[in-house]
Amino acid sequence: MYKDFLKPLFLDRVQTLIQYQLETTAELMKRTISKAMMELTSDMNDSTMQCERNLASFVWTESPADIVMADIWQAASSKTLMDCGGLMLKARAFTPAVQNLCHSVDEKLRLLLEDTESYVQAAESEPRQDSDVFDRFADTPDILKFMQQSGVKCVQEILSYLTEQLHLWEKSLTDIPDPITSAITENKVLLTARTCAAMSEMTPHLQRCILALPDWNKHASFKLTKKFRSQKPSELPEWNSIHMKLQQCQMTAYRIWMEYTYKQIMSGFSEQISSVDQNAILTSLTRWEEVQITEEAEEGKKFSSKIFVPVQASWHLQTLLYRLCDDLNKIGIQALPRSVVQNLLVKVTDGLITAYEELLALRGHHKCTNPLSQPEVLQELFNFRFIQLIIPRKGEEEIHKKYQQRCQTVLSQLEDIVDPFDLDVFSPYIQANLSKQAQRSSVIFGALCHLDKLGGAGAGSVGGSLSGGLRPLLSGQEPHNVLSLISCPNRFPLLPLGSQHGSRGGGNSALTTQPLKAQTMSRTADGNGPSLTSMVESTLPSSSSQADLSSSFYDKMEKLGSMGSRIFSNISGKS
């Protein structure tokens, strides 16, 4: 009777409850997303959403929750992303709004799993041996399968809503030229991308629903992400399908942002480098270095002359590169997929070389109305080689090979305009200044260099990339991209380390190799004991001694620390 009449009703009721909970979860997620987007549309100076507009303020602001000291001894395999503290969330660019969105979904799904616990038998539980009339765990496979299918539909409904919003925002960025509206829309697109990335990592109960796992307990959910990350995608087809859809939505959002950013950065650059307006030329003009050279005439007489050589890139180029770095750092470049940064740099470099090709086509020959003068060509040579240094593209792909060919063509055309004798004279000084400029600006423009192509700019030739002085990667592993900055050892030397020399002066040797003997301080007015001044003078080394000249800063701090501890110990003993 149960199997024929009650079981279908019972199963249908459970499935109805599951379906209702998942539909409610999807609606809650959409309402929460809409609320977050409305808060982004509010006052731009609102501090509560400031970190959503500029992740740099969120990433580089310390908070007590950055490191969770209570779980410091907890094994890494038993931690989720939320257990790792705020520092890990900042590294992954999961802002408070993203955390709130994922937490609301995961909490609803946790309650759903708790409700279904009464009707789902755990996988490790022993099967029932007795044949009762009513077996509440008999429908476990059907319930889990239905929960999996409904969970997939729930995620698809959320993604459909996000995709629809992305299309509307893409059209808004294209059709509405208002800068404030575009900035708000840009923040919405980026928040959508971060949300899609976080849903794969910050919703363990969503993973459990999609994977149809019966054991939903907390201990198992801790190990869920680490366990299934080690498996191949083919072993988890259900979750891999959802993960790929989330990633696809994320990449769609980043594509919209990338196209908008490229248009904003490159707007007006071709006009700036091709402009013949004197005011525009003076605005972008940079300092040139005065160099005195000595030449020898045919008669053997030597005479000196002065030449002016470019020292740094033009202001419009430096502004473009700095704006690009600022935009990348503002959205959390450490959490961006590597392909997004690479594609953006490819688009920017292609746009730059196209601008130079247009410049040469317009003013690169003597028959044109305003041909390029030799000083302008020297400055553009400096600019173009500076671009090659800061954004190296040395890949083996066909797109990079074509880019290198275009670069060689542009360089050849620029060099052909300069007098050959002058080019031989100017080239060494231009290359030296390029090395200095690349080294000085490598930290500022570090976000534009790939992590596997970093190094000292002055180590290799100017025509090469910045990767000349970098150590090879160990075991072929790809380096991390957490808060990436270029390494520049020339600008950041190592701190001096304190060293203990074997032979020193007698008094100073006792200070560094033996503990100081306890001395007594007297508080009486007769002054029998040593005074504080005499103790300091006896402890500190003489300024005229050779040991003081050879001792480091850390040795002196060690002596002062020993003196202070002895003084306060004597004071506490007296009291």
From TrEMBL:
GO terms for biological process: intra-Golgi vesicle-mediated transport; protein transport. The keyword Cytoplasm does not apply. It is a peripheral membrane protein. Keywords: Golgi apparatus, Membrane, Protein transport, Transport. Residues 520-537 have a biased composition (Polar residues). It comes from the Eukaryota. It is found in: Golgi apparatus membrane. This is Conserved oligomeric Golgi complex subunit 1.
